[in-house]
Amino acid sequence: VRIHHTQIQPTHSCIVMHKCQLLSLIVLAICLTPTYTFTPSQSTSVKPKNSAGIMSSIATDTSASPVPNWRVIPSDGTDYHEHLAARPNWSENQYLASLELYDRFMSCSDSYMNSEIKDALNTLDHAFRLYGQHSVICSFNGGKDAVVILHLMRAAHAHYCNVTGQPPKRPRVVYFDHKDEFPEVLSFLQESVDLYDLDMLAFEKGVKFSGGLKILVDENILPGCNTPFPMGFVLGTRSSDPNANGQDRFAPSSHWMPPFMRVNPVLEWTYGHIWHFLRLFQLPYCQLYDQGYTSLGTTKDTLPCPALAVNTGIAGDGTSSNLPKFWPAYMLRDYSMERAGRIKKEKEGSSKDSKKILPRTVSSAETTISDIRLSDPLPHTDTGSSITGVGLDDSSAFTLNDSEGNKAVGILIIGDEILKGLTIDQNTNVAAKALRKECVTLARVVVVSDDQDEIVKEIRRLQSEVDVIITSGGVGPTHDDVTIKSVAASLGQDMILHSEMADLLREKMNNHDDELTPAQEKMATLPSNAKLRYLSKSESDWPILQCRNIFILPGVPEYFSNKIENVAAYLSSQLERSTAYRLVLGVEEASIVDALNEAVIDHPNVSFGSYPFVSHPEYKTVVTLEGTLHETNVNELKETSLTKRNSAVFDRTAVTMSKEARDRNVRLALDDLVNKLPEDAVLRVENDDLTPFN
To answer: What is the secondary structure of 446-495 as a DSSP string?
Structure first.
């Protein structure tokens, strides 16, 4: 159902507008049905429809030229209709640029962002279809979330006008001025309004949010009508926000607010999605975010995020003196710290004596580390927010949790010969002793046949019951060795030729001959997220295969007993693992080799990993950093330290470092590495290292 204002007869405006409101609600109910989709959003390439006619309408409308992009709405109660009625046409350049942006968004192939972007645009497409370009208004306060929805909204606005053939009006945005606003925010807002030819309604200082919205709702009267039309208000609300409880992508305003529809296109986005989106499409944002601010309020209640304070080390430790005081907002690893720089307001009834003296911050440039006293400069959270869809599975990132007494390690014994009584299971007893020796809890043992469907089913069941799964048996080149395929299927991974495993087979079995036998090719074909763990001190030993939280061991008791001891020791070390970081970069691995090699040499007590993604359309390299359990001398580093990036060999006589020391080493290494990387190389820092192999 679509109703244009040209269909409304002025003599029956009241009756027709009531019908408009009713039909709008009916269509809204339809669009919220889970199976409903908006057809135009499915196209990944939209060309301007009747562009000449639309642009001709813009060119012949001379009434738009005198209307400024930035209009101040006074607080003195004057005739607001006079201020709000004018809806100037959008400039041709910005209309076409926004239409092109819609195409770029819809054709985005970044696996981390593509579904989020399409879902957000689909929500906005529905909003424009329901309310039209005159009645969709966007909140634009200069914050990171507001910047994201501005660009999504202007793209959807242009797409709507292209589909309907309507002359495009300037996208309308709203801002509420504040006496303690950051000057950097105000400057950014003004530049953005001019750059994108927006229709900014800036309410004067003193106008409250609810009061301003009432004005917008009451004065949202279409040409030829005298009754307000329903309004869709686009917001940057995310589910992690304090006020997001109970909201959906379309959410009616609260009972104490004027009646309008809240439109939340990025409701399910995380902090990481916001920054990846901005940096992926190279969209400008307020400079405060490059100075360590992660959530912007006012100059009276906002400081840089303490989690982004640069660990400059101690004098003479070789750390660069050119480091900034705070890293940019997109470097935040722990998303739960997003609002850590916001100073909480005192609750009513608090005594004056208990009030804190807040540092005065006029501008970000005046804020120093001395303004923020960190009780814990290396924050550690008990839970991490998982980020999926990256294409890299950081197998070093997990914690064991046996605080409930029923979550730890599960053993999956695979083999028909065990179930038929043809072979005695020796591996369960060996595993139980090795894990107990390392204080790792064995919670469950399951024996299953050499049937892929059965193995997949048991793995998925164990995933919900334990933190780590260790398999025994079903590994080899014969027809009944289906364990590795089953692991891949249970994790939704493809089987690919693993280059590191192929090289290892050539080295150990073929005397470096390039040709692999069919059996060797099968052994080198592993799940796409597989890693080879070098956990033994003997270079002649084969590495252990790991896929997320699954360690795949052979079933032969002699081989199993040796490897389970190494795995148990490794798991024990993870009970109190160091803070870990994962940098997602938009540059090729070749461009960071020198910087990475320098960092490896300068920080011997940190384990670095570098993972190139040659064919990925957006990010090119992922670098991981994690503190080593035992102290390492720089002279002990081998040239192969980056090649065998998943090594964790344990020497019982080595000096074990405290978690505090390991965390500090990682932060120093991170700060040093980022300072050496090419400008704008970092897309985001990931936050899922505390989630078991997610």
So the answer is: EEE-S-HHHHHHHHHHHHTT-SEEEEES--SSSTT--HHHHHHHHHT--E
| Residues composing the chain | 694
Give me the phi and psi of 583, to 5 degrees please: -95, 125
The reply to whether the predicted model has a pTM over 0.70 is: no
**434 with 565: CB under 8 angstroms?**
yes
- Give the DSSP per-residue string, 266-291: TTT--HHHHHHHHHHTT----GGGGG
- Report the relative pairing of strands 621-627 and 232-234 from DSSP bridges: unpaired
DSSP code per residue over 31-99: HTSTT---GGGG-S--PPTTHHHHHHHHHH-GGGTTS-SEEEE-SS---HHHHHS--PBPPHHHHHHHH
**pLDDT tens column, 180-215:** 999 999 999 999 999 999 999 999 888 888 888 888
Residue type, 662: R
With the CA atoms of 486, 491, 496 and 501 taken in that order, what torsion angle do they form, in degrees rounded to the nearest 10? -80
In sign, the C-alpha dihedral spanning 59, 61, 66, 68 is negative
Contact status, residue 455 vs residue 414, Cβ threshold 8 Å: yes
State whether the Cα torsion 22-28-31-33 is positive or negative. negative
**Residue 693 near residue 549 (C-beta atoms within 8 A):** yes
CA dihedral sign, ordered 244, 246, 252, 254:
negative
Contact 581, 602 (CB under 8 A): no
Distance CA 562, CA 551 (A): 14
Tens of pLDDT, residue by residue over 229-266, are 899 999 999 998 888 888 999 999 988 888 999 999 99
CA distance 489 to 457: 10
At 356, list the tokens. 């804190």
